[in-house]
């Protein structure tokens, strides 16, 4: 993890997706199993580094059968599956509804990228095990929109994250 934290700032400044993918591909570190709230049936965000206006790096631990809401990002989001596998469903918004455009099972070591031009998404741990994913958001974001319904965009709402 030390080399990841040491290099991430420099790589983010290069503004090269290719370099970020390379950084994530090389990111391997032992996971502290206390990253999860074991009693939770949800996901837990663990911030590793938060550099104002530049990036935020975190590990998300997904309890068995937990999932995020469908959400947008207001930033570039890069991610890597550190342990386990997770399903990503992507949607596009046409002003009236969300249409699903893909469903991908991301296995151990898989790397991905999404931004609001590419769509919105949810991630779901459909397994009986805890799953760990690494996320790099450029720049850091405190708010995003979530979509409780794919058919009724009036339910779309902004949520605030505590990234301190
Ligand atoms: Fe996301």
From TrEMBL:
Gene3D superfamilies: Jelly Rolls. GO terms for molecular function: cysteine dioxygenase activity; ferrous iron binding. Keywords: Dioxygenase, Iron, Metal-binding, Oxidoreductase. InterPro entries: CDO_1, RmlC-like_jellyroll, RmlC_Cupin_sf. The keyword ATP-binding does not apply. The keyword Repeat does not apply. CDD domains: cupin_CDO. One of its GO terms (biological process) is L-cysteine catabolic process. Pfam families: CDO_I. Belongs to the cysteine dioxygenase family. This is Cysteine dioxygenase type I. It comes from seawater metagenome.
């Amino acid at each position: 993890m030390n080399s990841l934290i040491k290099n991430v700032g420099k790589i983010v400044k290069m503004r090269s997706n290719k370099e970020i993918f390379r950084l994530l591909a090389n990111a391997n570190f032992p996971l502290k199993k206390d990253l999860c709230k074991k009693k939770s049936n949800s996901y837990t965000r663990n911030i590793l580094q938060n550099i104002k206006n530049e990036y935020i790096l975190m590990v998300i631990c997904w309890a068995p059968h937990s999932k995020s809401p469908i959400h947008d990002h207001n930033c570039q989001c890069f991610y890597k599956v550190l342990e386990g596998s997770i399903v990503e469903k992507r949607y596009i918004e046409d002003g009236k509804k969300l249409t699903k455009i893909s469903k991908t099972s991301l296995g151990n070591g898989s790397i991905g990228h999404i931004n609001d031009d590419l769509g919105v998404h949810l991630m779901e741990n459909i397994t009986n095990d805890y799953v760990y994913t690494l996320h790099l958001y450029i720049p850091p974001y405190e708010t995003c929109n979530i979509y409780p319904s794919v058919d009724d965009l009036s339910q779309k709402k902004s949520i605030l994250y505590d990234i301190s």
